[in-house]
Design goal:
Number of helices: 5
Largest sheet: 2 strands, antiparallel
Helix content: 55-70%
Shape: globular
Number of strands: 2
Length: 162
């Protein structure tokens, strides 16, 4: 997530941070690829980007990215609970981004369940899920861009006041 995500010896785990960034880029590209914007605005006509206009390619890559994101988040949560809780503190923006990411994951999982055979959800609820998922993603991307611009991290060392 941030560069301060640490491994056992406390050094920054750049692989984890870069992997998280690559997964988020994949999810953003394939998520927007679910809407026909890449074909409509001729982005898919750029050599090498034609796959962005193929619905099933972006659909399955989005699912793969979501699986990878769940695995990375599970690792980070377990790492925090088992080893890092006393060494780092989650910041306010870290909690805010984690809450938004949780909402994105919940709405995404419900949308996956909606796609299963034999599952029926009310059309109004499906529209709510779509709009909530997209809205949370847009707010998450804007918040992440702001946090990158002002160098606000997910975590910080614990304060000495306690």
């Amino acid at each position: 997530m941030d560069r301060e995500s640490a491994n056992a010896n406390g050094a920054p785990n750049r692989l984890l941070a870069h992997g998280y960034g690559a997964i988020m880029l994949l999810l953003t590209l394939t998520g927007f690829g679910q809407m026909p914007i890449f074909k409509r605005y001729y982005i898919a006509d750029i050599p090498g980007l034609g796959w962005l206009a193929m619905f099933y390619v972006t659909h399955y890559l989005h699912y793969l990215g979501a699986i990878l994101l769940l695995a990375v988040l599970a690792y980070i949560i377990v790492q925090y609970l088992m080893a890092d809780r006393r060494r780092i503190t989650i910041t306010t923006t870290g909690y805010l981004r984690a809450g938004m990411l949780g909402g994105i994951l919940v709405t995404g999982c419900l949308m996956v369940i909606r796609n299963l055979d034999g599952i029926w959800l009310a059309p109004g609820f499906i529209i709510f899920l779509d709009l909530a998922h997209l809205g949370l993603v847009m707010i998450f991307l804007a918040t992440t861009a702001y946090c990158l611009a002002v160098n606000t991290r997910w975590t910080r060392p614990p304060s000495k006041d306690k």
